[in-house]
Specification:
glyceraldehyde-3-phosphate dehydrogenase (NAD+) (phosphorylating) activity; GlycerAld/Erythrose_P_DH; GlycerAld_3-P_DH_cat; Glyceraldehyde-3-phosphate dehydrogenase; alpha+beta
């Protein structure tokens, strides 16, 4: 993102000011590339972005996938949850809160 954060109002539009302490700011990350190095089967199959979020403890994943066969949302959630409790425990966490 190229929009600058400003702790104050915009000179052009009073609603255009952005306070860094109250906004989610999209950014880039090298974490997705690092996943491919740690899990070679995912190399080249994963991209990512980061969000600068004004909280002490938070994590966000914007996951977009292309599936080989049809699956419902509940089936996808169940598969991710199962992996987070099995082979990927300690690497992948799952919560619905």
């Amino acid at each position: 993102a190229t929009q600058k954060t400003v702790d104050g109002p915009s000179a052009k539009d009073w609603r255009g000011g952005r306070a860094a302490s109250f906004n989610i700011i999209p950014s880039s990350t090298g974490a997705a590339k690092a996943v491919g190095k740690v899990l070679p089967s995912l190399n080249g199959k994963l991209t990512g972005m980061s969000f600068r979020v004004p909280t002490v403890d938070v994590s966000v994943v914007d996951l977009t996938v292309r599936l080989e066969k049809a699956a419902t949302y509940d089936e996808i959630k169940a598969a991710i949850k199962e992996e987070s409790e099995g082979k990927m425990k300690g690497i992948l966490g799952y919560t619905e809160n």
